Structures are given as structure tokens and as C-alpha cells.
């Protein structure tokens, strides 16, 4: 593996070096103030890395700093990878986006929608529309996450053991069967709700391809893109490179995860259920290669993962009527701010930077992860950004909006 390194001088890539230094100073204060344990930032323009920095510790108690090859939990930054996998199969004619999910996962054949009552005795009715594959890709399927704590159906998910995504005792097929047996929040296509939809999509990839999700990712995406440090578990030889996980206290300061030893140990074993919605570990180098493939229209170093028309199609707003997330999202939670942003097939997409209140380009696509990680791709500026850290929850600090401010002010 080639180590990640700067490939072009910042000025040559169109950045003012002194202005770019503001980014590092700003986020160094996050570490000095105890808000983050440590972080890593990679910025590329024109396909070459123009800025690479890290600050703080990957493990505070052990005194181990963030280094260029540190492995991070990317959580929901797994979702775009799963969406790419699904669209690779779509390009092979394996399904149409309008196909009912039940054609491949029969447990979803008769979805029912919540109409009232407590979680212990919910009232439901038949859904007016089947869950279709495009509903999974756009989070409009009516599914949910247990950690929302916003709806009685969220409570049903928690009661079934899905507090943070997957239930420990079930494989991926079993998880999908359990979700299929619980009510939807709304008729498919009627609203937007961040959910386990991408995990269901991962199971669909397994059924359609005949491979486990782990095997599909490894052979069809990670190996061709030379993403050797990305997967659903961390190799024992690389355990020391894994960043520890932290949670925010009431003052927004980072403290060790209360189950630190268990969480670290779990990273070293293949999961019972591979979560395409949030189960991957990766590095700045590897995720940079994934973003470069997207920026280049589906190809990198002679390896074509997707057709360029498919990437353009995935990264436009697919929400009904061209709505933004602010108007269509049922709950308040998202890995991005909602105003001015639509949702494509696995990515948030900026339609209106003024409404989004961020300096950005129309057409920028992005997502983030539970532990405050983030990435975006800006085709207009030929720019990609990857920010990695390990603090739960991602809503603790305005890292993503501030990162936008500081990156774009440095472009001259």
C-alpha cells in the first residue's frame, strides 16, 4: 500500500496556503478545548491531494496520536458505498429501480403503515404503495432507526434489539425479516426518514449478486479501487491503528466510550450482520480513492466501477417534486443540515447553497457518519474533502458547516 501524501502544492491547486492554514488552526482548538480527541483532514483538487493534516490523539488514554494510516469507524459513510454496489447491479440489468423490494426479499410483500396507538399496541393499515428499490436508495421507504426516539415505531425497533442499527443475535437476512414485520412510518414515497433502508439495500445486493455483502464490496469495489484498509472488521495486525471511540458529555467534551474495551474488541471480529448502512472501517487514503472514483464519473486508475451517466443520475435530487429535505423529512435527524439540500441515490445533494446557508456549489454531494465524520464531492470546483474523527453523536458540534466555511474561503 502506498502511504497517503500531499501530491500538489496548495497554491498550484488554487488554494491560498495562509487561508488554508486557518482550517487546521480552527480544528486544533477543538482538540485543545477537549471537544474532539483528534481528527484527520484530506483535501484534493483536480484529482491530487493538496492538503493533508491531522491533530490530536487516536487514543487519548494510550497517548497514541492520529497518524496518516489511522483507521476510523465511518458509520453512515458506508451508505454511499452500498448505494454504489446496488447501482453496479442495476447497470447489469439485475433490477429496475421501480421493482418492489419484495420481488427479492419476500418478507416485505405486505407492508403496513402505522396509524396510531402506543408501541405496545400499534394500529396499522395496508400501505398504498409497495416499497420499491428507489425508496431504499432515497430513504423514502417508511423505515426508521431506533435511535431517533421520535415515533412509536422507533420504540418498536428498540424493543426488537435494534438500538443502534443491527440486532446482535441476527444475521442480515434476519434483521431484514424483523424490519419487514414492523409498521412503516408512512406510505413509501410520501416522506423522507433516515433509516435502516440502506441495510435492506445491502441485503438486496447479497440476494441479487449471490455474494455476501462483505465479499461483493471486497471483490467488486475495494480491490479494484485499492482500498485495502476498508472493511467490516479491522485485521488483528492493524488493531493498534484503530482510533478509539468517544462520546460527548453534556458540555460537548469528548470522553471515552463507556464500553470502550467491548467496542474496540468488536471491531476485530467479522459482524454477525454486515451493515451496509453503517458497519465499515476505513482510512483517509481509502475513502479519498472512493471519492475520486465518484468525481471522475465512476472510474479511477483504469478501473471503472460505474458509468459516468449513472454517477450523474445518482447525484441529482430524487425527492418527489424536487423538494428539499427540510420540507420532506419526517424527523429532525440527518447527517447533514436539511434546508436547500435534496437527496439522490445514496447522497445528499445541494440544490440551493443560499437556502442551505453554506458556501458551496450547486450539485455538491455528500454524507457523514455517526462519529462526526464527513465527506463531500464538488464537481464544479473539482474538489473532494474527507474529514475523519471519532465523536458520537455527529450533532454535537457544527463541524461540517464550519469545514465548508474554511475550505471555500481558502479557494482563490
From TrEMBL:
InterPro entries: Beta-lactam-related, Beta-lactam/transpept-like, Diverse_Enzym_Activities
Domain Beta-lactamase-related, chain residue ranges per copy: 23-393
EC class: hydrolase
EC number: 3.-.-.-
GO molecular function annotation: hydrolase activity
SUPFAM superfamilies cross-referenced by the UniProt entry: beta-lactamase/transpeptidase-like
Keywords for the protein's UniProt record, in alphabetical order: Hydrolase
Protein name: Serine hydrolase domain-containing protein
Species of origin: Saccharopolyspora cebuensis
Organism taxonomic ancestry: Bacteria, Bacillati, Actinomycetota, Actinomycetes, Pseudonocardiales
